Amino acid sequence: MQSSQLYWIVWLTVMTSLAYADHPKVTLTMKNQKDVVYEGENVTLECSIESDMPNWKYRWYKSHLDTWMEMCVITKDTYTLERMSSLDSGEYWCAAVRDDHPYYIELSNNVTLTVQGNPKTTLKMKRPVHIGDTLTLKCSIEGSFTDWAYKWYKLNWAGGSDLLSGTTGDTYTVQSVTQSDTGVYWCAGDRNVLPYFSEPSNAVTLNFQEKLKVTLKLRTQKELIYEEDNVTLECRIEGGLPGWRYRWFRSWANAWKEITDITGDTYMVKFVSSSDSGEYWCWAVRDDPPDYSDVSNAVTLKAPDELKATVKMRNERKPVYIGDNVTLECNIDGGLNSTKYKWEKEIRWTDLRRVSGNTVTVQNVTQSDSGAYWCYGSSPVSYLSDVLLLTVQAKQKVTLKIKNPKVPLSIGDKVILECSSEGDLSGWTYRWYHWSQEGVWNELKSITEDTYTVQSVAQSDFGKYWCYAFIEDPDQYTKFSNAVTLK
To answer: Of 195, 211, 423, 459, whose CB is crowded by the most CB atoms within 10 A?
Structure first.
């Protein structure tokens, strides 16, 4: 397991609640839900919680390769991604947290954003036979999108590429070609509405004599390429003649980007990640005597998103009470079988080292078994699961009510609030909270008993009240009570 993985997992799970109360449901949705998200588009995610309690804060997370990243600057219930690119694709989730005791964090459902690639572009050439003939290049973009402005490029012999002027239409014409017009061309489109860009077209070679062909292929053909694999691309010129250097290109940000640090006939992509996905091609050139090959075929490298392990509770039941038996199960997406499993639980980085199978059973759970659990499955690559929050709660339940109800309630009246339970809570401590009509959240720290008396009701006493009970030896907490409103 990489240290970066462990850091983020532990950071996330240490912040997880041991409050043992029933957590309200947190839901993550995309505002203005749409079927397709294009590069350059803005997307807003919204995190909502089913609770009438105030003062919730929000944290935002995104899956990236084999770890979780927190968008630390976001604490509101919405998160906007501006001018999205393929790097923004992935799973997102949010968490609602509270600062009052008991402190806990509740994760939402996941929302997967897939940024649609830009439309494909194709370049065709009507090849001139002789110097002085007319060169015609035709650029076409798939789909029914209109109002494209076309950009035309020619590869520079010394390095890089030149943007050709003279037209923004889909046809580029040279009326009387010369030897200086020979070389490698491609095109791309952009416009003022979504999708803003097309993919760069295939490259074509203009020459007046037959050029040697080069072939690009993967050295080791693999049915599946996984994150962190090493992949080698080979560029071979026909005849295997010496004295050639190779220029390498890949699709990047709606253009062909030259990989400038490689001149050999092989290119290794180390520890493949999703950012390495795209099309690659190569070109062979010779300086003495000056010559060049035809452009190679394009090879598409696609690193799929990392497979995940899934941890779930077998025969899931909620809530889980003290004394229940709980079995957790770890499985790898796609039906892959693992030869080894590893289980971990938060709190002091606890590692369940005695367990190597895909299930772990906790007999007669206590509230100390509450917390976040995750697993790994090795096949042989390690696959990391999401976090499962196990909340073990005391069987006692508290109910808040007005002991001497009076309707309507008037200024100066006496009110007694009672936090009661069907079970025996002798020796337990009570905590009380008030949400005023002015929007002020306050813990009534001076009150630790099961009743709260307002001797003479004032305007500031109106609002909502909650309570819960706890005992410290051993640690047990009830869930929050229902809310009672004084008005």
So the answer is: 195
Task: Quick: pLDDT tens for 115-141.
Answer: 888 899 999 998 877 888 899 999 999
Amino acid at 288: D
Other C-beta atoms lying within 10 Å of the C-beta of residue 208? 16
Half-sphere exposure of 243 (CA within 13 A, CB side): 9
Contact 279, 299 (CB under 8 A): yes
For 147, the token pair is 């109002």
Nearest to 296 by CA among 306, 281, 309: 281
Average pLDDT over residues 395-408: 86
For residue 204, the Cα-to-chain-centroid distance in whole angstroms is 37
